[in-house]
Amino acid sequence: MLPPSGFVFFGKIAEALFSAPVFRMQRKQ
Fold first, then answer.
1. What is the model's pLDDT at position 13?
2. The 3-state secondary structure of the chain, one letter per residue
């Protein structure tokens, strides 16, 4: 079972990976 800190760390990485392409698409328009 993941510790809370590890879960938050993984969440931040997932958020960064997900928001990067979205941010790029918004800047193109």
1. 92
2. CCCHHHHHHHHHHHHHHHHHHHHHHHHHC
Sign of CA dihedral 22, 24, 19, 13: positive
Check the CA dihedral 18-21-23-16 and report its sign. positive
Look at the block and give the residue holding tokens 């997900």. Answer: 18
CA atoms of 2 and 11, how far apart (whole Å) = 12
* CB contact set of 2 (below 8 Å; sequence gap of 6+): 10
Contact 25, 17 (CB under 8 A): no
Report pTM.
0.47
